[in-house]
Design goal:
This protein is α/β, with parallel strands linked by helices and about 475 residues long. It has 16 helices and nine strands.
Protein backbone atom coordinates (compact mmCIF):
# COMPACT_ATOMS: atom_id res chain seq x y z
CA UNK A 1 0.00 0.00 0.00
CA UNK A 2 1.64 3.24 -1.08
CA UNK A 3 1.71 6.40 0.95
CA UNK A 4 -1.70 8.15 0.87
CA UNK A 5 -0.42 11.70 0.50
CA UNK A 6 1.90 10.43 -2.24
CA UNK A 7 -1.14 9.07 -4.10
CA UNK A 8 -2.94 12.41 -3.87
CA UNK A 9 0.19 14.25 -4.99
CA UNK A 10 0.52 11.96 -8.06
CA UNK A 11 -3.17 12.54 -8.91
CA UNK A 12 -2.68 16.30 -8.79
CA UNK A 13 0.32 16.05 -11.11
CA UNK A 14 -1.70 13.97 -13.60
CA UNK A 15 -4.56 16.50 -13.44
CA UNK A 16 -2.20 19.41 -14.08
CA UNK A 17 -1.32 17.85 -17.42
CA UNK A 18 -4.96 17.64 -18.55
CA UNK A 19 -6.06 20.52 -20.83
CA UNK A 20 -9.64 20.45 -19.47
CA UNK A 21 -8.74 21.41 -15.90
CA UNK A 22 -8.22 25.06 -15.18
CA UNK A 23 -7.09 26.07 -11.68
CA UNK A 24 -7.30 24.54 -8.21
CA UNK A 25 -11.06 24.85 -7.74
CA UNK A 26 -11.75 22.65 -10.80
CA UNK A 27 -9.06 20.17 -9.79
CA UNK A 28 -10.58 19.86 -6.32
CA UNK A 29 -14.08 19.35 -7.76
CA UNK A 30 -12.74 16.70 -10.15
CA UNK A 31 -10.81 14.90 -7.42
CA UNK A 32 -13.83 15.37 -5.13
CA UNK A 33 -16.36 13.42 -7.16
CA UNK A 34 -13.88 10.69 -8.13
CA UNK A 35 -12.90 10.22 -4.48
CA UNK A 36 -16.54 10.29 -3.44
CA UNK A 37 -17.39 7.49 -5.87
CA UNK A 38 -14.46 5.36 -4.72
CA UNK A 39 -15.24 5.90 -1.02
CA UNK A 40 -18.95 5.27 -1.62
CA UNK A 41 -18.22 2.03 -3.50
CA UNK A 42 -15.84 0.79 -0.79
CA UNK A 43 -18.58 1.48 1.76
CA UNK A 44 -21.06 -0.45 -0.44
CA UNK A 45 -18.76 -3.50 -0.29
CA UNK A 46 -18.61 -3.26 3.50
CA UNK A 47 -22.42 -2.97 3.75
CA UNK A 48 -22.89 -6.00 1.48
CA UNK A 49 -20.73 -8.05 3.85
CA UNK A 50 -22.59 -6.80 6.93
CA UNK A 51 -26.14 -7.08 5.56
CA UNK A 52 -27.05 -9.94 3.21
CA UNK A 53 -30.04 -7.99 1.81
CA UNK A 54 -28.07 -4.78 1.06
CA UNK A 55 -28.11 -3.63 -2.55
CA UNK A 56 -26.08 -0.70 -3.85
CA UNK A 57 -28.20 2.16 -5.26
CA UNK A 58 -25.71 2.42 -8.16
CA UNK A 59 -26.59 0.14 -11.14
CA UNK A 60 -24.02 -2.65 -11.67
CA UNK A 61 -22.46 -1.27 -14.88
CA UNK A 62 -21.74 2.08 -13.18
CA UNK A 63 -20.34 0.61 -9.97
CA UNK A 64 -16.65 1.38 -9.46
CA UNK A 65 -15.72 -2.30 -9.80
CA UNK A 66 -17.30 -2.55 -13.24
CA UNK A 67 -15.50 0.27 -15.04
CA UNK A 68 -12.76 1.72 -12.81
CA UNK A 69 -11.28 -1.12 -10.74
CA UNK A 70 -9.31 -2.91 -13.48
CA UNK A 71 -6.03 -1.08 -14.06
CA UNK A 72 -5.99 -2.48 -17.60
CA UNK A 73 -9.64 -1.49 -18.17
CA UNK A 74 -11.15 0.96 -20.66
CA UNK A 75 -9.10 4.07 -21.36
CA UNK A 76 -8.63 6.86 -23.91
CA UNK A 77 -11.61 8.22 -25.86
CA UNK A 78 -13.71 5.20 -24.94
CA UNK A 79 -13.37 5.99 -21.21
CA UNK A 80 -13.98 9.72 -21.72
CA UNK A 81 -17.15 8.95 -23.68
CA UNK A 82 -18.33 6.48 -21.01
CA UNK A 83 -17.82 9.03 -18.19
CA UNK A 84 -19.45 11.97 -20.02
CA UNK A 85 -22.27 10.23 -21.84
CA UNK A 86 -23.17 7.28 -19.62
CA UNK A 87 -21.79 7.40 -16.07
CA UNK A 88 -22.59 11.00 -15.07
CA UNK A 89 -26.07 11.11 -16.70
CA UNK A 90 -26.96 7.78 -15.01
CA UNK A 91 -25.83 8.97 -11.55
CA UNK A 92 -27.66 12.29 -11.96
CA UNK A 93 -30.86 10.42 -12.74
CA UNK A 94 -30.75 7.63 -10.16
CA UNK A 95 -34.16 6.32 -9.13
CA UNK A 96 -35.00 7.77 -5.70
CA UNK A 97 -38.69 6.82 -5.71
CA UNK A 98 -38.14 4.08 -3.10
CA UNK A 99 -36.86 6.57 -0.55
CA UNK A 100 -33.31 5.18 -0.67
CA UNK A 101 -31.19 7.66 1.29
CA UNK A 102 -27.92 6.52 -0.27
CA UNK A 103 -29.35 6.90 -3.79
CA UNK A 104 -30.42 10.46 -3.00
CA UNK A 105 -26.90 11.37 -1.82
CA UNK A 106 -25.33 10.09 -5.07
CA UNK A 107 -27.87 11.95 -7.17
CA UNK A 108 -27.47 15.24 -5.31
CA UNK A 109 -23.66 15.02 -5.52
CA UNK A 110 -23.62 14.43 -9.27
CA UNK A 111 -26.33 16.93 -10.13
CA UNK A 112 -23.93 19.69 -9.13
CA UNK A 113 -20.48 18.38 -10.06
CA UNK A 114 -18.81 17.85 -13.43
CA UNK A 115 -16.12 15.98 -15.31
CA UNK A 116 -13.67 18.59 -16.59
CA UNK A 117 -10.97 16.19 -17.80
CA UNK A 118 -10.58 16.01 -21.56
CA UNK A 119 -8.18 13.09 -21.93
CA UNK A 120 -9.42 9.57 -21.18
CA UNK A 121 -5.86 8.37 -20.73
CA UNK A 122 -5.42 10.85 -17.83
CA UNK A 123 -8.73 9.74 -16.29
CA UNK A 124 -7.44 6.14 -16.37
CA UNK A 125 -4.18 7.19 -14.67
CA UNK A 126 -6.17 8.90 -11.88
CA UNK A 127 -8.45 5.86 -11.44
CA UNK A 128 -5.42 3.58 -11.15
CA UNK A 129 -3.94 5.82 -8.46
CA UNK A 130 -7.25 5.81 -6.54
CA UNK A 131 -7.29 2.00 -6.73
CA UNK A 132 -4.24 2.04 -4.49
CA UNK A 133 -6.46 3.30 -1.65
CA UNK A 134 -8.75 0.99 0.34
CA UNK A 135 -11.21 2.85 2.52
CA UNK A 136 -12.38 -0.32 4.24
CA UNK A 137 -9.18 -0.56 6.24
CA UNK A 138 -9.97 1.48 9.35
CA UNK A 139 -6.39 2.72 9.74
CA UNK A 140 -6.30 3.88 6.14
CA UNK A 141 -9.66 5.58 6.44
CA UNK A 142 -8.47 7.44 9.52
CA UNK A 143 -5.22 8.49 7.82
CA UNK A 144 -7.20 9.65 4.83
CA UNK A 145 -9.58 11.58 7.10
CA UNK A 146 -6.54 13.51 8.35
CA UNK A 147 -5.35 14.07 4.79
CA UNK A 148 -8.81 15.16 3.71
CA UNK A 149 -8.41 18.10 6.09
CA UNK A 150 -5.42 19.27 4.05
CA UNK A 151 -7.39 18.92 0.81
CA UNK A 152 -10.09 21.12 2.35
CA UNK A 153 -7.46 23.57 3.57
CA UNK A 154 -6.19 23.84 0.01
CA UNK A 155 -9.61 25.19 -0.88
CA UNK A 156 -8.56 28.38 0.87
CA UNK A 157 -6.12 29.09 -1.91
CA UNK A 158 -8.66 28.20 -4.61
CA UNK A 159 -10.18 31.64 -4.98
CA UNK A 160 -13.64 32.14 -3.56
CA UNK A 161 -13.94 28.51 -2.47
CA UNK A 162 -12.11 29.47 0.72
CA UNK A 163 -15.35 30.55 2.33
CA UNK A 164 -16.13 26.85 2.90
CA UNK A 165 -13.32 26.20 5.33
CA UNK A 166 -13.23 27.11 9.03
CA UNK A 167 -9.85 26.47 10.72
CA UNK A 168 -9.95 23.21 12.62
CA UNK A 169 -8.90 24.83 15.90
CA UNK A 170 -12.07 26.94 15.86
CA UNK A 171 -14.49 24.12 15.02
CA UNK A 172 -12.87 22.01 17.73
CA UNK A 173 -12.86 24.77 20.38
CA UNK A 174 -16.50 25.77 19.78
CA UNK A 175 -17.60 22.12 19.87
CA UNK A 176 -15.73 21.46 23.13
CA UNK A 177 -17.25 24.54 24.79
CA UNK A 178 -20.81 23.74 23.65
CA UNK A 179 -20.29 20.07 24.59
CA UNK A 180 -23.04 18.30 22.58
CA UNK A 181 -24.44 15.13 24.17
CA UNK A 182 -25.70 11.87 22.66
CA UNK A 183 -29.39 12.17 21.83
CA UNK A 184 -29.25 15.92 21.24
CA UNK A 185 -30.17 17.26 17.81
CA UNK A 186 -27.20 19.12 16.35
CA UNK A 187 -27.37 21.37 13.27
CA UNK A 188 -25.03 23.43 11.15
CA UNK A 189 -27.26 25.42 8.76
CA UNK A 190 -24.23 26.57 6.70
CA UNK A 191 -22.12 23.44 6.90
CA UNK A 192 -19.61 24.04 4.08
CA UNK A 193 -17.23 21.10 3.95
CA UNK A 194 -18.54 19.68 7.24
CA UNK A 195 -15.93 20.88 9.74
CA UNK A 196 -18.37 21.44 12.62
CA UNK A 197 -20.31 18.27 11.83
CA UNK A 198 -17.19 16.09 11.96
CA UNK A 199 -16.01 17.86 15.13
CA UNK A 200 -19.42 17.10 16.70
CA UNK A 201 -19.34 13.46 15.50
CA UNK A 202 -15.87 12.87 16.97
CA UNK A 203 -16.92 14.58 20.23
CA UNK A 204 -20.03 12.35 20.48
CA UNK A 205 -18.15 9.16 19.56
CA UNK A 206 -16.14 9.53 22.77
CA UNK A 207 -19.45 9.24 24.68
CA UNK A 208 -20.83 6.32 22.63
CA UNK A 209 -21.00 2.98 24.45
CA UNK A 210 -23.36 1.01 22.23
CA UNK A 211 -24.64 0.47 18.69
CA UNK A 212 -27.73 2.49 19.70
CA UNK A 213 -25.50 5.42 20.66
CA UNK A 214 -23.75 5.29 17.27
CA UNK A 215 -27.10 5.16 15.48
CA UNK A 216 -28.23 8.15 17.49
CA UNK A 217 -25.18 10.15 16.30
CA UNK A 218 -26.00 9.34 12.65
CA UNK A 219 -29.62 10.40 13.12
CA UNK A 220 -29.02 13.58 15.10
CA UNK A 221 -26.09 15.35 13.41
CA UNK A 222 -27.35 17.34 10.41
CA UNK A 223 -26.17 20.03 8.03
CA UNK A 224 -27.53 22.23 5.23
CA UNK A 225 -25.41 23.36 2.29
CA UNK A 226 -26.32 25.04 -0.99
CA UNK A 227 -23.13 25.03 -3.05
CA UNK A 228 -22.44 21.82 -5.00
CA UNK A 229 -18.71 21.54 -4.30
CA UNK A 230 -18.81 21.93 -0.48
CA UNK A 231 -21.93 19.71 -0.41
CA UNK A 232 -19.92 16.97 -2.17
CA UNK A 233 -16.90 17.49 0.11
CA UNK A 234 -19.00 17.51 3.31
CA UNK A 235 -20.87 14.34 2.28
CA UNK A 236 -17.56 12.56 1.62
CA UNK A 237 -16.18 13.91 4.90
CA UNK A 238 -19.07 12.40 6.88
CA UNK A 239 -18.82 9.03 5.10
CA UNK A 240 -15.14 9.00 6.13
CA UNK A 241 -16.39 9.57 9.71
CA UNK A 242 -18.54 6.40 9.50
CA UNK A 243 -21.86 8.08 8.69
CA UNK A 244 -23.49 5.67 6.17
CA UNK A 245 -26.15 8.17 5.14
CA UNK A 246 -24.87 11.65 5.99
CA UNK A 247 -27.74 13.92 7.01
CA UNK A 248 -26.69 16.81 4.82
CA UNK A 249 -29.50 18.49 2.92
CA UNK A 250 -28.68 20.24 -0.33
CA UNK A 251 -30.64 23.48 0.14
CA UNK A 252 -30.48 27.22 0.62
CA UNK A 253 -30.95 27.71 4.36
CA UNK A 254 -32.78 31.02 3.85
CA UNK A 255 -35.32 29.64 1.35
CA UNK A 256 -38.22 29.09 3.79
CA UNK A 257 -40.43 31.56 5.65
CA UNK A 258 -39.13 31.91 9.20
CA UNK A 259 -42.54 31.07 10.67
CA UNK A 260 -42.70 27.77 8.76
CA UNK A 261 -40.28 26.20 11.26
CA UNK A 262 -42.32 24.46 13.93
CA UNK A 263 -41.32 22.95 17.27
CA UNK A 264 -40.41 19.64 15.57
CA UNK A 265 -37.79 21.44 13.45
CA UNK A 266 -36.00 22.87 16.45
CA UNK A 267 -32.62 21.63 17.65
CA UNK A 268 -30.60 21.47 20.89
CA UNK A 269 -27.30 22.65 19.46
CA UNK A 270 -26.18 24.90 16.60
CA UNK A 271 -22.53 25.07 15.57
CA UNK A 272 -21.92 27.32 12.58
CA UNK A 273 -19.84 29.80 10.65
CA UNK A 274 -22.61 31.43 8.57
CA UNK A 275 -21.59 33.16 5.33
CA UNK A 276 -20.82 36.83 5.88
CA UNK A 277 -20.32 39.73 3.55
CA UNK A 278 -22.68 37.91 1.22
CA UNK A 279 -25.73 39.34 -0.47
CA UNK A 280 -28.86 37.22 0.00
CA UNK A 281 -30.08 35.63 -3.26
CA UNK A 282 -33.58 35.16 -4.76
CA UNK A 283 -35.16 37.85 -2.54
CA UNK A 284 -34.95 35.34 0.32
CA UNK A 285 -34.94 38.21 2.80
CA UNK A 286 -38.72 38.31 2.17
CA UNK A 287 -38.95 35.02 4.12
CA UNK A 288 -38.20 37.07 7.24
CA UNK A 289 -40.43 39.48 9.19
CA UNK A 290 -40.26 43.03 7.79
CA UNK A 291 -38.41 44.48 10.80
CA UNK A 292 -35.54 41.98 10.31
CA UNK A 293 -35.19 42.18 6.54
CA UNK A 294 -31.68 42.79 5.26
CA UNK A 295 -29.50 41.69 2.35
CA UNK A 296 -26.61 40.82 4.68
CA UNK A 297 -26.49 37.02 4.96
CA UNK A 298 -24.82 36.82 8.42
CA UNK A 299 -27.61 38.87 10.03
CA UNK A 300 -30.41 36.75 8.53
CA UNK A 301 -28.60 33.57 9.58
CA UNK A 302 -28.49 34.91 13.14
CA UNK A 303 -32.28 35.40 13.15
CA UNK A 304 -32.74 31.94 11.60
CA UNK A 305 -30.53 30.30 14.23
CA UNK A 306 -32.40 31.96 17.11
CA UNK A 307 -35.63 30.60 15.58
CA UNK A 308 -34.21 27.08 15.11
CA UNK A 309 -32.99 26.63 18.68
CA UNK A 310 -35.24 24.88 21.20
CA UNK A 311 -35.79 26.64 24.50
CA UNK A 312 -32.67 25.74 26.51
CA UNK A 313 -30.77 25.10 23.27
CA UNK A 314 -27.27 26.50 22.86
CA UNK A 315 -25.20 27.84 20.00
CA UNK A 316 -21.57 28.57 19.22
CA UNK A 317 -21.10 30.59 16.04
CA UNK A 318 -18.68 32.84 14.16
CA UNK A 319 -19.84 36.40 13.35
CA UNK A 320 -17.96 39.35 11.81
CA UNK A 321 -17.54 42.67 13.65
CA UNK A 322 -20.11 44.17 11.26
CA UNK A 323 -22.88 42.11 12.87
CA UNK A 324 -22.03 43.41 16.35
CA UNK A 325 -22.67 47.03 15.46
CA UNK A 326 -24.81 49.24 13.18
CA UNK A 327 -28.26 50.83 13.38
CA UNK A 328 -31.71 49.97 12.04
CA UNK A 329 -32.26 46.29 11.19
CA UNK A 330 -28.87 45.31 12.61
CA UNK A 331 -29.76 46.90 15.95
CA UNK A 332 -33.17 45.18 16.06
CA UNK A 333 -31.57 41.79 15.34
CA UNK A 334 -29.08 42.26 18.18
CA UNK A 335 -31.89 43.35 20.51
CA UNK A 336 -33.80 40.16 19.67
CA UNK A 337 -30.68 38.07 20.34
CA UNK A 338 -30.18 39.69 23.76
CA UNK A 339 -33.86 39.47 24.74
CA UNK A 340 -34.50 35.88 23.54
CA UNK A 341 -31.12 34.43 24.46
CA UNK A 342 -28.43 34.66 27.07
CA UNK A 343 -25.42 35.81 25.06
CA UNK A 344 -22.93 34.91 27.77
CA UNK A 345 -19.60 35.01 25.91
CA UNK A 346 -17.93 36.79 22.98
CA UNK A 347 -14.39 35.77 22.03
CA UNK A 348 -12.83 38.53 19.95
CA UNK A 349 -10.44 37.06 17.36
CA UNK A 350 -7.57 38.80 15.56
CA UNK A 351 -8.63 39.88 12.07
CA UNK A 352 -6.42 37.44 10.15
CA UNK A 353 -7.99 34.15 11.34
CA UNK A 354 -9.84 33.65 8.06
CA UNK A 355 -7.09 34.87 5.75
CA UNK A 356 -6.40 34.82 2.88
CA UNK A 357 -10.00 35.14 1.74
CA UNK A 358 -11.36 37.43 4.45
CA UNK A 359 -9.46 40.01 6.44
CA UNK A 360 -12.43 41.16 8.51
CA UNK A 361 -12.29 40.85 12.28
CA UNK A 362 -14.43 37.99 13.58
CA UNK A 363 -15.90 36.89 16.89
CA UNK A 364 -17.07 33.65 18.46
CA UNK A 365 -20.50 34.08 20.06
CA UNK A 366 -21.92 31.64 22.59
CA UNK A 367 -25.56 31.89 23.61
CA UNK A 368 -28.39 29.88 25.20
CA UNK A 369 -31.99 30.37 24.17
CA UNK A 370 -34.82 30.94 26.60
CA UNK A 371 -33.46 33.49 29.05
CA UNK A 372 -32.49 37.14 28.43
CA UNK A 373 -28.90 38.36 28.64
CA UNK A 374 -27.88 39.97 31.94
CA UNK A 375 -24.18 40.42 31.19
CA UNK A 376 -21.75 39.54 28.41
CA UNK A 377 -18.23 38.32 29.04
CA UNK A 378 -15.62 39.36 26.47
CA UNK A 379 -12.30 37.63 25.90
CA UNK A 380 -9.68 39.11 23.59
CA UNK A 381 -7.79 36.31 21.84
CA UNK A 382 -4.30 37.51 21.02
CA UNK A 383 -1.87 36.34 18.35
CA UNK A 384 0.95 34.10 19.59
CA UNK A 385 3.99 36.05 20.72
CA UNK A 386 6.15 37.24 17.87
CA UNK A 387 3.50 36.48 15.22
CA UNK A 388 2.14 39.44 13.25
CA UNK A 389 -0.85 37.64 11.69
CA UNK A 390 -2.29 34.26 10.76
CA UNK A 391 -1.83 33.02 7.20
CA UNK A 392 -2.36 29.97 5.00
CA UNK A 393 0.79 28.39 6.39
CA UNK A 394 0.31 29.70 9.95
CA UNK A 395 -3.27 28.82 10.88
CA UNK A 396 -4.68 29.39 14.35
CA UNK A 397 -3.77 26.38 16.54
CA UNK A 398 -5.90 24.55 19.11
CA UNK A 399 -3.30 24.99 21.88
CA UNK A 400 -3.81 28.75 21.60
CA UNK A 401 -7.24 28.21 23.20
CA UNK A 402 -5.82 26.52 26.33
CA UNK A 403 -5.88 29.78 28.30
CA UNK A 404 -9.46 30.50 27.19
CA UNK A 405 -10.61 27.01 28.26
CA UNK A 406 -8.93 27.52 31.64
CA UNK A 407 -10.62 30.93 32.06
CA UNK A 408 -14.01 29.59 30.86
CA UNK A 409 -14.48 27.48 33.99
CA UNK A 410 -13.40 30.18 36.42
CA UNK A 411 -14.04 33.65 34.99
CA UNK A 412 -12.15 36.64 36.29
CA UNK A 413 -11.56 40.03 34.69
CA UNK A 414 -8.02 40.70 33.51
CA UNK A 415 -6.18 42.65 30.80
CA UNK A 416 -7.67 40.30 28.15
CA UNK A 417 -11.18 39.73 29.54
CA UNK A 418 -13.92 42.01 30.77
CA UNK A 419 -17.66 41.89 31.35
CA UNK A 420 -20.37 44.35 30.37
CA UNK A 421 -23.84 44.46 31.92
CA UNK A 422 -27.00 44.62 29.84
CA UNK A 423 -27.81 48.16 31.07
CA UNK A 424 -24.60 49.48 29.47
CA UNK A 425 -25.34 47.57 26.26
CA UNK A 426 -28.88 49.01 26.06
CA UNK A 427 -27.46 52.52 26.62
CA UNK A 428 -25.16 51.85 23.66
CA UNK A 429 -28.22 50.99 21.48
CA UNK A 430 -27.37 47.29 21.72
CA UNK A 431 -23.95 47.89 20.15
CA UNK A 432 -21.82 44.84 21.04
CA UNK A 433 -18.59 46.02 19.43
CA UNK A 434 -17.02 46.78 22.79
CA UNK A 435 -13.26 47.13 22.80
CA UNK A 436 -10.98 46.02 25.59
CA UNK A 437 -11.19 48.75 28.30
CA UNK A 438 -7.61 47.87 29.35
CA UNK A 439 -6.49 49.43 26.09
CA UNK A 440 -7.34 53.03 26.88
CA UNK A 441 -6.15 55.46 24.23
CA UNK A 442 -3.00 57.14 25.46
CA UNK A 443 -3.63 60.82 26.04
CA UNK A 444 -1.05 63.00 24.38
CA UNK A 445 0.29 65.91 26.45
CA UNK A 446 0.66 68.94 24.13
CA UNK A 447 3.11 71.78 24.80
CA UNK A 448 1.73 75.36 24.91
CA UNK A 449 3.50 76.09 21.58
CA UNK A 450 1.73 73.10 19.94
CA UNK A 451 -1.64 74.23 21.35
CA UNK A 452 -1.16 77.82 20.01
CA UNK A 453 -0.23 76.41 16.59
CA UNK A 454 -3.32 74.12 16.54
CA UNK A 455 -5.56 77.05 17.53
CA UNK A 456 -3.98 79.22 14.84
CA UNK A 457 -4.62 76.50 12.22
CA UNK A 458 -8.23 76.16 13.27
CA UNK A 459 -8.77 79.98 13.00
CA UNK A 460 -7.25 79.89 9.53
CA UNK A 461 -9.60 77.07 8.56
CA UNK A 462 -12.61 78.98 9.97
CA UNK A 463 -11.68 82.14 8.03
CA UNK A 464 -11.33 80.12 4.85
CA UNK A 465 -14.80 78.61 5.32
CA UNK A 466 -16.31 82.05 6.12
CA UNK A 467 -14.84 83.51 2.92
CA UNK A 468 -16.26 80.61 0.92
CA UNK A 469 -19.70 81.23 2.47
CA UNK A 470 -19.52 84.98 1.64
CA UNK A 471 -18.69 84.14 -1.97
CA UNK A 472 -21.60 81.69 -2.11
CA UNK A 473 -24.05 84.28 -0.72
CA UNK A 474 -23.01 86.86 -3.35
Amino acid sequence: MSNISGVIKSIRNIMRQDPGLNGDAQRIEQLGWMLFLKIFSDKDKELELLHSNYKSPIPDEFHWEAWAQDDEGITGDKLLEFVDQKLLPALRNLDISHGNGRALIVREVFEGNNNYMKRGINIRKVLNKLNELDFNIAKERHTFGELYETILKDLQSAGKSGEFYTPRAITHFITEMIDPKIGEKILDPACGTGGYLTAAIEHLKKQANSIEDRKSIAENVAGWEFKPLPYLLATTNLILHDMEIPKIIFRDSLDQPLNSYAQKDRVNVILANPPFGGIVANNNENNFPANYRTKESADLFLILMIQLLKSGGRAGIVLPDGSLTGDGVKQRIRQKLLEDCNLHTIIRLPNSVFQPYATVATNLLFFNKGEPTKEVWYYEHKLPEGQKSYSKTKLIQLKEFDAVIEWWKNRKESEVCWKVDIKTIIERNYDLDIKNPAKKEETHEYTSTELIQMLHNSFEKSNELLNQLKEAVK
